[in-house]
Amino acid sequence: MKLSLKQLSVYLFLLVFGCGAGIFGSRYLLLKNPSFQQLKNVTMASPPESVVPNSSNGGIGSTGGDNVNFIATAVQKVGPAVVRINATRKVANPISDALKNPLLRRFFGEDEQPIPQERIERGTGSGFILSEDGELLTNAHVVADTDTVQVTLKDGRSLEGKVVGVDSVTDVAVVKIKADHLPTVKLGNSQNLIPGQWAIAIGNPLGLDNTVTIGIISATDRTSTQVGVPDKRVSFIQTDAAINPGNSGGPLLNAQGEVIGVNTAIRADAQGLGFAIPIETAARIANQLFTKGRVEHPFLGIEMADLSPIKKQQINQENQLNIEQEAGIVIKGVTDNSPAKRRGLLPGDVIQKVNGKAVKTSAQVQKLVESSQVGDIIAIEVNRNGKIQTFKVQSGAYPERK
Known about the structure:
This protein is of the alpha+beta class. The protein has 10 helices and 20 strands. It has helices at residues 5-32, 70-78, 94-98, 102-105, 140-143, 224-227, 279-292, 309-319, 339-343, 362-370, and strands at 82-92, 118-129, 135-139, 148-152, 158-167, 172-177, 198-203, 211-222, 236-239, 251-253, 259-264, 274-278, 298-299, 302-306, 329-334, 350-354, 357-358, 377-384, 387-394, 396-397. It has a 6-stranded antiparallel barrel. The chain has a 6-stranded antiparallel β-barrel with strand order 7-8-9-12-11-10. Strands 14, 15, 16, 17, 18 and 19 form a 6-stranded antiparallel beta sheet that branches. A hairpin with a 5-residue loop joins strand 4 (148-152) and strand 5. It is globular and about 65 Å long. The termini are far apart.
């Protein structure tokens, strides 16, 4: 088949542009779409002997007979309530936008549209069933920008799910499917987790349904800034249980098979680092989304940092401050027209107490504020240039992102 000069020119342009767009698209997905980020698996670190369940009760050392280990027992209980969520969304096609350039339109007829203006982007994530009548919990980034998703149960059924609500601030979303007598998970407690305890993750990494990985709780109360998502308001659980693309939205379990967190694949550069939203946070947000369809987060308008000798010097230099304390929580910045600004809080103030409770980390402050209601009066005690002062701030609603 012979090509005309016009057709050959168009073909070469699309080939070169398409390669560039492909490279850009790959980089964009890696940075912007956590559900497609690939985290590398590492060898599991063994926890202390003191936390290994007794082999006589089905622990790690259990072998032979009808005994099963605690991991298998937990998975048997929870696995049927873990679902795969397939989402599709329409996104702008960059090649189509480029062809709107008048210099390129001469290669095509005025009424000809050679490249679709939109393309379909598909993603796979996980979720778990909260109620027998089909209430599901997952990550917001799994179902973002779509109203309906396809939910696949472990028994093979595939049902249409309606996205009831999405909260991008905590990365929590809820979905409803029409079904009855469904298996459900049991919610546990993440408040008293200790590094070294067992952690079991179930999900659908890379489309491999009901995959189980195991590790330990590596740390708790990781702030959003530490994790690399400063726009979120979550104190994350850190685990070395493998969490790969597709695990997002699945449950993180304790040794008893109770859900203690919602797995979230965040860091593309991580090795052996997984993060989960504490179940108390996720359940509270899910309840508001099911009942109201939206969530209001209390907002003060302060940017905080945990002090150390090195951090103090850095903050003083960057913000032209004169902080003397080498420990505590410093206010680095105050948002204009915010509740904190109106009540007189200033950069350089070092927070001592919140509502009369002593605090040592910014994560503690964030938790106390997040557990309040919009409109509540929050007493912030600070050390300002050696003097202790208390400011009563009425929280506002977290501003919506445009």
